From TrEMBL:
It comes from Umboniibacter marinipuniceus. GO terms for molecular function: metal ion binding; metalloendopeptidase activity. This is Zinc metalloprotease. It is found in: Membrane. Signal peptide: none annotated. The lineage of its organism: Bacteria, Pseudomonadati, Pseudomonadota, Gammaproteobacteria, Cellvibrionales.
Length: 451
């Protein structure tokens, strides 16, 4: 229950910031253009909190926190009777109306630039894209990729970290053809291109890890399971494990990755497991019986030990430090790259190259926001920037009801010199409302399936 409340509160905070910023963009530009603002609301439906300022603007927090709005004079005749003609939204020039409507998405993109800029100032750390192992995903795939190679570029795009590799591969989601890797061995100056075939890459179901999908596993330092502490009255204490013990084998098996070892333990609840240890330079065996217990509101099979965090060789770590101008450029670049990726993904979803199962609604957003907050402020800020870009780009789609739909009508008006026919606008609004409602329901349906 506590975790649920925490998830809801973090989601409300995250969405509240994004919606407030978006609506403030409309609000601020409308005031600059001389439009009388009647109401600034975060959420829809009945007001939970309401404050009327001296200038007559009503600020409210409403019951349904899934959006917000700025109500201006000229939009609802019954509420605009006390306003002067020059204060009406409809009385403004078409370019002023374009500025007012476009300000919402624009300030969301600006927020993303600012957040990415701030994160860049603290520097970035990534891992060198060195291949740990490679198992071709298809019989036709090239076998020229191998362990120990570093990926220097994907389709000509430089890749300094695994994040760069992942982003480059995500750009090919839904496509068929060849992905070209430029690879080489770190100790050599020679590089060469390796082409890996893809067919409808990650087009079915939800998009997963694109690197793993191709059969590539990143290099990891040799697994060292060194015990740092033992929980009282746990299976580990009962078995006799001590801090400083190094687990070398489990039922005579060695594991390359922590996930493999963890999965093995998970599969042996209430069963005897033999641990091969090294203690003070001497080898010994202990029998332990893993027990199912609750951890972070999840049922897990645990030993009751904490393990020492493994360190990475410095040559496998990429560290980046930016000056203020460089951080600003990086903030703009990341916002532009994210915007382009979102637009491409929407286009691929429309053409069927990407499954609609990738649509996410408020439930998934709430869960991701909570998880990112649990991982620290940097993780949460990164998500906030990503969601801000998404909100800005999605609102610019030329769909009536969204800001982009209004902008479409206004740009047509600017070209032809007269407003779009009122009936056409009404039909457009009805169709746009139906489309947005359909997509929203589909996103919520996907959310429910993920629970």
């Amino acid at each position: 229950m506590v975790e649920l409340i925490q998830t809801i509160l973090i989601a409300l905070l995250t969405l509240g910031i994004l919606v407030s910023i978006h609506e403030f963009g409309h609000f601020w530009v409308a005031r600059r253009c001389g439009v009388k603002v009647l109401k600034f609301s975060i959420g829809f439906g009945p007001d939970l909190l309401r404050y009327t300022a001296k200038d007559g603007v009503v600020y409210s927090l409403s019951a349904l926190p899934l959006g917000g709005y700025v109500r201006m004079a000229g939009e609802h005749d019954d509420e605009s009777r006390d306003s002067e003609p020059h204060e009406m939204f409809d009385a403004k020039t078409v370019w002023q109306r374009i500025a007012i409507v476009g300000a919402g998405p624009a300030i969301n993109l600006l927020l993303a630039v600012i957040v990415f800029f701030g994160l860049s100032l603290r520097g970035e750390v990534g891992l060198a894209p060195v291949i740990g192992s490679y198992e071709p995903a298809t019989p036709a795939a090239s076998r020229d990729l191998s362990a120990g190679q570093e990926i220097y570029a994907v389709d000509g795009e430089e890749t300094s970290t695994w994040r760069d590799v992942s982003l480059a591969l995500l750009d090919r989601v839904g496509e068929s053809g060849l992905v070209t890797f430029t690879v080489g061995y770190p100790e050599s100056t020679l590089t060469y291109d390796v082409s890996v075939p893809i067919e409808g890459f990650l087009s079915e179901g939800e998009v997963s890890d694109p690197i793993e999908e191709l059969g590539i596993k990143p290099w990891l330092p040799p697994l060292k399971l060194e015990v740092s502490s033992v929980q009282a009255e746990s299976p580990a204490e009962i078995a006799g494990l001590l801090a400083g013990d190094v687990i070398e084998t489990t039922d005579s098996e060695s594991f390359e990755r922590f996930s493999q070892w963890s999965d093995y333990i998970q599969a042996h609840a209430d069963q005897e497991v033999m641990l091969g240890l090294v203690r003070n330079g001497e080898a010994l065996n202990l029998i332990i019986i893993p027990k199912e217990s609750e951890l972070n509101n999840e049922r897990r099979v645990l030993l009751g030990v904490s393990l020492m965090q493994q360190s990475w060789p410095e040559e496998m770590v990429r560290r980046y430090h930016y000056s203020i101008p460089e951080a600003l450029v990086n903030g703009v670049d990341r916002t532009v790259e994210t915007s382009i990726f979102i637009v491409k993904s929407i286009a691929k979803m429309i053409t069927g190259d990407i499954s609609t199962k990738n649509l996410s609604g408020p439930i998934t957003i709430a869960k991701v926001a909570s998880d990112s907050a649990a991982n620290g402020i940097v993780s949460w800020l990164s998500l906030l920037a990503l969601l801000s870009v998404s909100l800005g780009v999605l609102n610019l789609l030329p769909i009536p009801v969204l800001d982009g739909g209004h902008l479409l009508f206004y740009f047509i008006e600017a070209v032809k010199g007269s407003p779009v026919n009122e009936r056409v606008q009404q039909y457009g609004m009805q169709a746009g409302m139906a489309l947005v409602l359909l997509v929203t329901l589909l996103a919520i349906y996907n959310d429910i399936l993920r629970l």
